[in-house]
Design goal:
Helix content is 41%, strand content 26%. The model is unreliable at 4-19 and 348-353 (pLDDT under 50). It has 13 helices and 18 strands. It folds into 3 domains: 2-47 and 83-150 and 330-346, ATPase, nucleotide binding domain (Nucleotidyltransferase, domain 5, 2-Layer Sandwich); 163-194 and 269-326, ATPase, nucleotide binding domain (Nucleotidyltransferase, domain 5), CATH 3.30.420.40; 196-266, ATPase, substrate binding domain, subdomain 4 (Actin, Chain A, domain 4). It has helices at residues 2-17, 63-66, 90-104, 125-138, 148-156, 196-211, 217-227, 258-264, 266-281, 285-294, 308-316, 329-339, 342-346, and strands at residues 23-27, 31-36, 40-46, 49-52, 58-61, 76-79, 82-83, 86-87, 114-119, 142-147, 166-171, 176-182, 185-192, 213-214, 238-245, 251-257, 296-299, 320-322.
């Protein structure tokens, strides 16, 4: 009876799928990307929600809400509901997902969408349940979870179904996912809660400690993107930074260079490199031999930090390549799973909810 019920459930889901535009979601700490079957990536917005503090009503979501970070009056608060790759605020995450699903799911399709959602490989059962519940309450018909390294590997086009070792490092806003994949499954993976956010915090701390200058998250991110690096640059860069003087409390500006920011980023970069080394140490010898030829693929927003590929290559002794479109790798992977159901049979999914 159980198998018959499963068969009926799958048949109904498949039938309903004809009348809905199914969705793939890369639910990131910093950015959420949404892929719609047959259309591609249609949304790429910050994972930020602005709410009225007294009532909890949503004022803005995504790009509009991010502009409010650090600039809201006392009655409004801008929140990032995901922390370290997982849900920190259940209700706000639900509202954010509802906004993104509504934006992605055309009124031409009356049936609620099936959603493939990427989740960190190291999250707990409670955190997995929170992702599913949030997506269902936000309007999903069915939730199919897939581990981020698998989605990223599919997204960048690695031959994960082959009996060969493929290594991917996905540096996101809240987590860095490192995995060796073969025959459609993860052989060994590490998920560390270090990513772009920790780099931003390191920059803010550097400005406080060395210049008595208080800056916000957006300014720290801008510094990281413009002059941040993991490896010495051919030509070092300079930048003017504005903030609040911690001593006088007045507005102040100063000039900084890429060398000092590179030094400020050493702690989070060291954590990423060490996690990569541990992964390699625990990879079976036959697959490790494949990696000598195939190298490591870098993706995720953090992978575009200048020289990160050179640092990892130097520390591991393996060639390191940045994906053609590193920012969208995970979202593209969820989309390929929707477009080509064969992937669902070949990959190893996170345990069923």
């Amino acid at each position: 009876m159980g198998r018959f019920t499963q068969y009926i459930t799958k048949s109904i889901s498949s039938f309903l799928g004809r009348f809905s535009n199914d969705v793939g979601i890369d639910l990131g700490t910093a950015t959420t990307l949404v892929y719609v079957r047959g259309e591609g990536i249609i949304l790429c917005e910050p994972s930020v929600v602005a709410i009225y503090k007294n009532t909890g009503d949503v004022l803005a979501v995504g790009e509009e809400a991010k502009k409010m970070l650090g600039k809201t009056p006392g009655s409004i608060v801008a929140i990032r509901p995901l922390k370290d790759g997982v849900i920190a605020d259940f209700n706000i995450t639900e509202e954010m997902l509802r906004y993104f699903i509504k934006k992605a799911h055309s009124s031409r399709f009356p049936i609620r969408p099936r959603i493939v959602v990427a989740v960190p490989s190291g999250i707990t059962e409670v955190e997995k349940r929170a992702v599913k519940d949030s997506a269902i309450r936000a309007g999903a018909r069915e939730v199919i979870p897939v581990e981020e390294p698998i989605a990223a590997a599919i997204g960048v086009g690695l031959p994960i179904a082959e009996p060969q070792g493929n290594m991917i490092i996905d540096v996101g806003g809240g987590t860095t996912e490192i995995a060796v994949i073969s025959l459609g499954g993860i052989v060994y993976a590490r998920s560390i809660r270090v990513g772009g956010d920790e780099m931003d915090e390191a920059v803010m701390e550097h400005m406080k400690k060395n210049y008595n200058l208080m800056i916000g998250e957006r300014t720290a991110e801008e510094i990281k993107i413009k002059i941040g690096s993991a490896w010495p640059l051919d030509e070092e860069l300079m930048m003017e930074v504005r903030g609040r003087d911690l001593i006088t409390g007045l507005p102040k500006f100063t000039r900084i260079n890429s060398e000092e920011i590179r030094e400020a980023l050493q702690a989070p970069l060291r954590d990423i490199v060490e996690a990569a080394k541990v992964t390699l140490e625990r990879t079976p010898p036959e697959l490790a031999a494949d990696l000598i030829e195939r190298g490591i693929v870098l993706c995720g927003g953090g992978s575009i930090l200048k020289g990160l590929d050179k640092l990892i290559s130097e520390e591991t002794g393996l060639a390191c390549f940045i994906a053609d479109d590193p920012l969208t790798a995970v979202a593209q992977g969820t989309g390929k799973i929707l477009e080509e159901p064969k992937f669902l049979k070949k990959i190893t999914l996170v345990s069923t909810f």
